[in-house]
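Late entry, copper (II) ion complex.
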Amino acid sequence: MNRRSFLGSSLVASVLCVQPRLALSITAPATYDLEAHVGKGRLYGEDGGVSDLWLYNKTLPGPEMRVRRGETLRVNFTNRLDTPTSIHWHGIRIDNRMDGVAGLTQEPVQPGESFIYEFTVPDAGTFWYHAHTMSWNQVPRGLAGALIVEEDVPAFPREQDLTLFLSDWRLDDGGRLDTASFGAMHDFSHAGRLGNWLTVNGKSMPDIPLVQGVWHRLRVINGSAARVLDLDPSRFGAQVIALDGQALESVPETSGALQLSPGQRVDLALKPEALGAMPFEMTTGQPFAFARFMVTEGPTSSGPRNRPLVAANALPKPDLSKVRRMPLDMAGGAMGGMRALMEAGKDPRAMMQNGQFWAFNGEPGSMEREPLFRAKQGESIQLDMANDTAFTHAIHLHGHHFQVLSLNGEAQDPQDWRDTVTLHRKDTASVAFQADNPGKWLLHCHMLGHAVSGMTTWFEVG
Ligand code: C2O
Ligand code: CU
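Prediction complete; structure with ligand written out below:
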């Protein structure tokens, strides 16, 4: 084909595809092409071995997607793996058909097939996307990435708006991803698949450049399969401005230690005053640094000198005067949990033969069972959770955000909107939300090995 005929045919093609779009809507959707495929990467620095990974668009984590609040996001997805998959958009109050839960909201995308995800994003904030077919296997191989929804006018300049995507990996002695232990029953019945190495944005111990005297926003995402991260923003002078993507209406002056469970996000605001390096670290027991903030002098004119305000999203509030209350008792697991189930008249041996170790309200949960409840659209629902197991769980609700009303009987800040709540052993938590989004929604533990072995249930709205 000569150059002229090539130009000619592409001109025809562009006219053909632009015109119908102009006719349909004024704002075209933000469009991304995404492929899942096998790939390679080094997780343990440059001297570590090469790992077999599953990637989106050959990058780790997958490409960061950015859209404006209220916009439509369109993702043309193709599965180049040799196993079925699907994508979930964690924390987005999404159109149910686009929620990505294979077996509940869509058929899995088969090898070689494509699926178009297209939905509007009602809330500004920090979200993420990850595989939701055999997620215990696919997420800790690398199938995850950040989804950032910007405010109508972005609160922070782009240069000061940084994403830190944290992943926990289980590496072998050569620093390669341990793939032999995927699906280990010992992990499912204990704390989940815990790793031994953390990366930030797919890198080992990266430097995160910051500018002295200027406010930054750090969007921290825990994309791990099971690892709860203990962080202490006050150690580097940061303030918490958003949780699970939802901006706080009033920002506390100082923020102490916090825990970020798998699936959770925290947005921090930070104005470094001193030049040089500051560790970003896990603060449990012996602090463990996994990245370094490098503070340098910037060009004097750049960046905000006062902390930008991020407006809270308008979320549908539950009506606590006519809330319907539902218990969610968690039982099972190793360290006595299975014995307790047997004493309650269950048959743990039969459960274990099916790879089930956990129960919600006395029964191992799954998508195939009856829903936990059905709600009328707009109905207010309260979940009274109790963790009667020896392990920590991070309970995640699809399609909605909830208010944490109380934790171990103590009233919580009503601006604590979450999509995932952490319960340590013996903890109780009450959360409430307005079931305003029609469809079939999952409710599960975000320790992904727990989700597949009994800690999954669902509810239907509408
Ligand atoms: Cu991020 Cu059903 O999960
Ligand atoms: Cu769990």
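Residues 88, 90, 130, 132, 263, 396, 398, 442, 444, 446 surround CU-O-CU linkage (ligand 1) (CB under 6 Å). Will revisit in the morning.
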